[in-house]
Amino acid sequence: MSAYWLARSIVNDPVLYKRYADQVPDIVAAYGGRILARGGKFEILEGPEKFTRFVVIEFPSLEQARACFHSERYQSAARWRRQDGAGEVELAIVESLDA
Hints:
The relative contact order is 0.36. About 35% of the residues lie in helices and about 30% in strands. With about 100 residues, the protein is an alpha+beta fold. It has one domain (about 5-95): Alpha-Beta Plaits, CATH 3.30.70.100.
């Protein structure tokens, strides 16, 4: 079953955050992931309006989504968005329904 990374974030330092964001597509692809939404127009229908960037990434399985997040490559890239509060992120993985 497919699984999805659902992330919402705010970019506080665009230069540091870009160092992270530029690496993510290749890392995700190495785990069979496909970016479905990354930035772009959005509308908050309910909840806090703190976050200004939304990302949806599809993976072939929950295991591959987890492996990508915990990989050395992803964690190394993520240090750029964590450095000096360059970005704040909430990230969840959700498994799709069995169709």
